[in-house]
């Protein structure tokens, strides 16, 4: 176990370093004049020279990369004479357009993304897993076919189309909800939930389809295994077989994918956040791309990669906890 | 794959060939046939777009302010977004551009990018997959890691990031094909690698190698035909997924730019009009939805027809 953790940790670190190098290469060295890109649209000559110096673009490239790495581990200062901007320890860059370190921009958006992801995840697990179990227990019958057909539709629909249709139905036609506006949980929990209902369900419907599918396959596989037959032969009640034993086998892939999806949706719910105007991390990526605010894009790309790599490791660990047949190596 | 091997000459003259069996199974699948009909209609409409638009008598870029109700903020006059004999699907709010013409332009982009991307994905995926499967231990472990990386990385995020740094003069549809393809070949490569690893130990491949065929010849003449069936299945599934990627990127404003039209871009500008002019949302939204679903059920039909033992995929791609 410890050995697995150490090895996994080492390979995760290597992977993240490769990613940092790649992101740095793409965003800081490939563009012909990074200062223009860093500064964004509408920057003058004098400003560019200041940024050149402030970013250390007048130094050799490997020195610049070293400073970038240094920034991530110990923080760094962006300085040009009297004007010093400090960027504390995990420094992912500095957004000159917003005059803020990238990390603090991310920090401001994180609560929104967390609210969206956690809420949607609860809903899709509550819909998807039971639907999959039901579908497996009634395999081939009408319930199974209805669930399967519904999941084709839910999964096939692009998320911004299904979200738009939900919006039209509940806001435009039925008038049950108004257009979502993000209200922080700490301010008013009821309004927070009410405003997030549409985004939650938009994400959850598409995801639930995948989870129903996954659970169904897992259940059917486990139910056909020998040990289940043995339990049946011993006269165990069906409810106990399904609840205690078959579900355990079906739930492992669900856990793996949940961890991955959590990491991904936390940073990458771009379509949902853009559609509903939620100021989360996904929207930040889109906005920064459109404004060519490269340090933010680069920083977020790193965070996204890191979130997914960490989530994958967490999934492997959870896997071993749930399914004792899995040996970590 | 084994069907051809066991057939003796003259043993069963009327035994259906594999190709005919596959076609028969596909034609018997009603869902897949419905998908095929819709898909063919869409492709024909996209190809014949200039003709159809000419038939309607409109174009995609002319403004028609006279059709809008300026008192209500530029909503088209009349029911269903101003649909009429002259404007078959109505007009766009605030500009009055013809929606039928713009929707057909969107169909062209959708197919162009989906199929163009597919070519990039297959070239990269088959190339890397073959190299990993046939290239020996070191190549396999290096390329294997690369494939894992390509699969587990958040494609859309990287695509957006990359689209941000490319100069705006670069032709947009081509750029979309390259970017979506560049981040979407991992699945194909993994599939091909797996197939190659199992095929290369078969007797007929060893026989070819022992008879002196070069590595390249073995790869192209012996291995490649063996992976074609799973490749076709997988490629069929990539088409709807590429359509969604293009529409998504255009929806986010980093894909097709005006004056070009894309369903995703149309939807994004329709977001604020869902109450005042529902037709404006429904035209691109339903076209995209129906098109994606048609290609998805068709792909699933192809899959079950090629490999009847495989469980139908209907309902999930993971």
Automatic annotation (TrEMBL), chain A:
Membrane topology note: Multi-pass membrane protein
GO terms under biological process: transmembrane transport
GO cellular component, one term: plasma membrane
Predominant cellular place of this UniProt entry's protein: membrane
UniProt subcellular location: Cell membrane
Record keyword Transcription present: no
Domain named ABC transmembrane type-1: residues: 110-319
Keyword Transmembrane part of the UniProt annotation: yes
InterPro entries in alphabetical order: BPD_transp_1_N, MetI-like, MetI-like_sf
Transmembrane segments: 12-30, 112-134, 146-176, 196-214, 246-271, 296-322
Top-rank taxon: Bacteria
Protein known as: ABC transporter permease
From TrEMBL, chain B:
Transmembrane segments: 31-53, 109-134, 146-168, 174-192, 223-244, 281-302
Subcellular location: Cell membrane
One of the protein's GO biological processes: transmembrane transport
Entry-linked Gene3D superfamilies: MetI-like
Domain annotation ABC transmembrane type-1: ranges: 107-299
Annotated InterPro entries: BP-dependent_transpt_permease, MetI-like, MetI-like_sf, OppC_N
Protein name: Peptide ABC transporter permease
Native organism: Actinoallomurus iriomotensis
Source lineage: Bacteria, Bacillati, Actinomycetota, Actinomycetes, Streptosporangiales
